[in-house]
Amino acid sequence: MKHSDLQQFVNSINLMTDVSGELIRHLRHTNIVPQIKTDTSPVTSVDKEVESSIRDIIAKLHPDHGICGEEFADTATNSEFVWVIDPIDGTLAFLAGFPVFGTLIALLHNQKPILGVIDMPVTSQRWIGGIDRPTTCNNQPVRVRNCNDINQAMLSTSNPDFYDDQTLPALLALKDCSQLNIYGGSCMAYAQLASGKIDLAIDVQSDIHDFLPLVPVIKGAGGMITDWHGYELDKNSTDKFIASGDPRVHEQALKILQSFI
C-alpha cells in the first residue's frame, strides 16, 4: 500500500473521531438510560448515534468499503477494505462518568488491521497507529517501555467480573506474578501501554470491535498483542487477548497462560 493511501485513511479516521468525540462530549451530560443486550452488556442510544455518524462518513468517503460495527448489521465485509467500529468502548465507564471510555476504529485490508485509533473524547487524547506509521498520541510519537521480567510489570485488566471459572485462574496467576495491578481502564489501559505506562494488559469476553483497533496502535508503539496462544489477532480471532510492551514479558505471560488453555 502506498504511503499516500494510508495518509488518506488517517485523514478519514481523524474526521470520524472528530465527529464522534464532539457527539459524545455533548450527549454524555444528557439523561441516558441503558439497555441490556443479549450478552448482558449495556448499550445506550449514544453508542448507536455515534456509530451511525461514523458509518455516514465511511459511506460518503469510502463507499466501496465494508463496515463491521458493534451496534448495527455488517455490510460488505468481504470487501478489500473493511472498517471495524466500537463507538463506545467501556460503556460501563461511560454510564458511571469515568473518563476512560473511548471510540475504537480499525481499518482492515484483506481481513488484517492496518490502521487503528483509540480516541478518548473526555481527555482529548487520540492514539493512532498503522503499518509503517509509528504510533502517535495527539501527533506526538509514543513508545512502549522496556520490562524484562513479569515480576516487575504493571498488569491491567478491564474488569475481573468479566472472567469465569475457566479464565479467572489465568488472571490470578498473572496477578500473582506481576508487581502492580490496576483494573477498570478499558481501552485507556491499552493506550497507556502504547505510551509506556503499563507493561501488560489482558482481557476476555471481547470481540473484534474491542481488540482489532488496538493492534496497529500497540504494534506501532513497539509492543505485542496476540491471542492467548500467541497467534496474531485478525477477524477470526476468539474472545481472549493479551498485550505487552516488552516481548520478554509477553513470552513469560504466554507461558503462564498455557496452563489455563
Question: What is the topology?
Answer:
Elements: H1 3-27, E1 35-36, E2 42-43, H2 45-61, E3 66-69, E4 81-89, H3 91-96, E5 102-109, E6 112-120, E7 125-130, E8 133-137, E9 140-141, E10 154-157, H4 168-177, E11 180-183, H5 186-194, E12 200-203, H6 208-211, H7 214-220, E13 224-227, E14 241-244, H8 247-257
Parallel strand pairs: 3-4, 10-11, 10-12
Antiparallel strand pairs: 1-2, 4-5, 5-6, 6-7, 7-8, 8-9, 12-14, 13-14
Helix pairs in contact: 1-2, 5-7
Q: How would you describe the overall organization of this protein?
A:
The chain has 261 residues and is an alpha+beta fold. It folds into two domains: 3-141, Fructose-1,6-Bisphosphatase, subunit A, domain 1 (Fructose-1,6-Bisphosphatase, Chain A, domain 1, 2-Layer Sandwich); 150-260, 3-Layer(aba) Sandwich (D-Maltodextrin-Binding Protein, domain 2). Helices cover 34% and strands 26% of the residues. The protein has helices at 3-27, 45-61, 91-96, 168-177, 186-194, 208-211, 214-220, 247-257; strands at 35-36, 42-43, 66-69, 81-89, 102-109, 112-120, 125-130, 133-137, 140-141, 154-157, 180-183, 200-203, 224-227, 241-244. The chain has a seven-stranded mixed β-sheet, with helices on both faces. A five-stranded mixed β-sheet has the order 11-10-12-14-13, sandwiched between helices. Helix 1 (3-27) runs antiparallel to helix 2 (45-61) and helix 5 (186-194) runs parallel beside helix 7. The protein is globular. The mean pLDDT is 95.
